[in-house]
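Methyltransferase, pasting as requested.
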Amino acid sequence: MIERFVAMMDGFEREPAAALARHRGHELLRVAAGQRVVDVGCGTGTSVGELAAAGARVSGVDVNPEVLVVAKGRHPAGEFTEGSAERLPFPDGHFHGYRAERVYHAVADPAAALAEAARVLAPGGRIVLIGPNWEMVGVDSDDPATERAVLGAQVASMPSPRSALRYRNLLLDGGFTDVAVEVHTALLTGETGLPMLESAASAAVGTGVISAERAQNWLAEQRERVARGRFLLAAPQFVASATRP
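Structure tokens follow.
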């Protein structure tokens, strides 16, 4: 199971648009060499490794202990700790930079997670939030009704699927300054997008939204599109940045 998850994450992070949003987020952190950064929801540690290579002192946090084993093996320069966005195992004002990518949609209370971000950031520290608004994800399909059913089931399974659209107001309401938002649309045209669709289709079947046969037919169409070079998944990535006063 973890191998499949890691392969999916690796594939997505290699996509040009995903890498662009990630690297833009690094720029917006404005972290100098030697300063401390926390990467919440660090996954396999891609950003931890990149920021550490630039001279930052980076702590990666994730709720999944298995993925942290992978991260530690790949990025020995980073420090990795099990924890959640709502309860970070660090003292007040410990970091100069905070980033969370594709995390807040999985958090029941994004405002509480943001309050925790403010707690661990030092005054003048920078925050960057990156993620898609899941209701805006779309897939080219000959069966748009099933596409909507599948993606709708995925959205329904998330605690906060609209969190990326809320980044700006969350930051403003949380007392942050210099709030800015950019959007970089990820366009997946190969097999990288299939695992996400398979997971979404499974959720749609499991909740009774569509039948297993209908889901398999739709997935077969998407696999055939990949084989013919006709697959397209579009996911707008919101990149929000701000400063802790």
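Note for the archive: The chain is about 45% helix and 25% strand.
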